[in-house]
Amino acid sequence: MDKRLLVISDSSPIMSLAIIGQLRLIQELFGEIIIPKEVWDELVIEGKGKPGTNEIKKAKWIKVAKVKNDSLLKTLSKDLDVGESAAIALAIERKANLLLLDETDARNLAEFYGLPKTGVIGVLMRAKKKNLVKEIKPILEELRTQAHFWIKPDLYYAILSEMDEAPSR
Fold first, then answer.
1. Beta bridge partners of 118
2. Are the C-beta atoms of residues 114 and 22 closer than 8 Å to each other?
3. How confident is the model at residue 3 (pLDDT cuts 50, 70, 90)?
4. Dihedral sign, CA of 112, 115, 120, 123?
5. What integer is the mean pLDDT of 114-124?
6. In angstroms, rounded to a whole number, what is the distance separating the alpha carbons of residues 115 and 109?
7. Do residues 81 and 12 make contact, with C-beta atoms less than 8 angstroms apart?
8. Which residue segments constitute the domains of the chain, with CATH numbers given?
9. Nearest-5° angle of CA 81, CA 86, CA 90?
């Protein structure tokens, strides 16, 4: 676990891992994470009753913060949803070491701002490298089937190859 890192997350990595019962991986890798209030609202208030919501609500290691720069938030919200915008804005404000997000447009904008980023797949790969999980293939399958997480076939096979897990085509 690397508690020195300031990690900020959008809703997708948290919700995807919570749905499949693997939310603990974020805590085991990073200790505490910070999410903007907008992401908390997406996950817990708008997500009430959805799979994984109660686990997220009970996670004391998920801290909620408010974005201070409203003009940056408004600018980012022109191209992204409010949760993604708030996560990027908070990461810029706090000079985050890592931003967790999955959506392509949000990742591209984070890259534009020079923010170090990874998504749920990157979290799983880190978890395997730190021996927190034995295999990521079954977890990827759960993401695809239970969380309806889309993974490009080429990326799926590249991940399995990089993690020394035999891909079955």
1. 100
2. no
3. low
4. positive
5. 96
6. 9
7. no
8. 7-121 (3.40.50.1010)
9. 155
Q: Give me the residue label for tokens 């993974």.
A: 151
pLDDT at residue 14, rounded to an integer: 96
3-state secondary structure (DSSP) of residue 74 = helix
Question: Tokens at residue 149, please?
Answer: 């997480």
Q: Closest Cα partner for 109 from 85, 83, 90, 93?
A: 85
Residue 82, token pair as written in the block: 């409010």
Tokens at residue 147, please? 């969380």
What does the alpha-carbon distance between residue 144 and residue 141 come to, in Å, rounded to a whole number?
5
Q: Are 87 and 10 in contact (CB under 8 A)?
A: yes
Task: Determine the pLDDT at residue 51.
Answer: 86
What pLDDT is attached to residue 50? 87
The sign of the dihedral angle between the CA atoms of 8, 11, 16, 18 is positive
**Is-contact 109 80, C-beta < 8 A?**
yes
Interatomic CA distance for residues 101 and 87, integer angstroms: 8
CA-wise closest residue to 101 among 116, 82, 120, 86 = 120
Structure tokens at 136: 């990521």
